[in-house]
Amino acid sequence: MARLDQVITNIVDIFLEYAADDGGKNPKLNKDELKKVLEQEIQSPELKDKINAGDIEEAMNMLDKNHDGEVNFREFCRCVSDLAKCYYQKKTGRGGKKGKGKEREGEQED
């Protein structure tokens, strides 16, 4: 399987593995399930520092855009995307908040 194929299937599989199966069509992560995902599935120090699993309430409020007390798949994908952006910024030294929304002189957005 190609690397991007693997990444996509892993994101879906991880979400479905931890999300409560209440028999509904839309599985969601409650606070405890989200905490488990963050503690067990993120091991690199660079990423662990970005989400504080100890303060799960803050992470939940940040991710739960529709304020239903749970994280749906769309909200979970937003979290994964944010972590990927943080890792990209650390690895490349680009994309920080300085000049957000504007290209800095001599730099192009990726």
From TrEMBL:
Residues 91-101 have a biased composition (Basic residues). GO terms for molecular function: calcium ion binding; calcium-dependent protein binding; transition metal ion binding. The keyword Nucleotide-binding does not apply. It comes from the Eukaryota. GO terms for cellular component: extracellular space; perinuclear region of cytoplasm. Residues 51-86 form the EF-hand domain. CDD domains: S-100. Residues 91-110 are annotated as: Disordered. The keyword Calcium applies. Keywords: Calcium, Metal-binding. It holds the Pfam family EF-hand_7. InterPro entries: EF-hand-dom_pair, EF_Hand_1_Ca_BS, EF_hand_dom, S-100_dom, S100_Ca-bd_sub. This is EF-hand domain-containing protein.
